[in-house]
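Re: that chain you flagged

S.,

Sorry for the slow reply, it's been a week of failed gels. I finally had a moment to sit down with the sequence you sent. For the record, here it is as I used it:
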Amino acid sequence: MLKPASKLLLSMAVLLITPLCACAGNTESEMQVSLEFDLQPLFNAQCVHCHFLESAQAGLVLENGEAYSSLINISSTQAAMKLVIPGKSDESYLMHKLRGTQLSVGGTGAQMPYGAERSAGLAVDDLKLIQSWIEAGAPDN
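Prediction finished late last night. Pasting the structure tokens below so you have them in one place:
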């Protein structure tokens, strides 16, 4: 039989561990990527210095509150593709620009973010995050 203090500690341990266990079984595709909380900070750090409202390179604005309407089903100015087609990351020109494969799909210009070809582009995890968001239907969340 456990003492009351031991029962309390055991209960607290279960409460702390349970949320971790609930997430442990989730696959990457089950985790929801948020435009506002996951991607916008990335855009702010890597993209907004060129893609802001007052001087949007290639007409693309990636500022907070503008990114979604500037990306989803919008035709690229550099290729005969849409920037982001929800659910289809391989057919989305944004992914090609970020991977540096834009020329292979008839696009132009340099890999993004600007200067990425010298610094190996975005981190692999950042690319996966954007790809996951697109594959999940590119929700406005």
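What I noticed first: Residues 31-135 form one domain.

Talk soon,
D.
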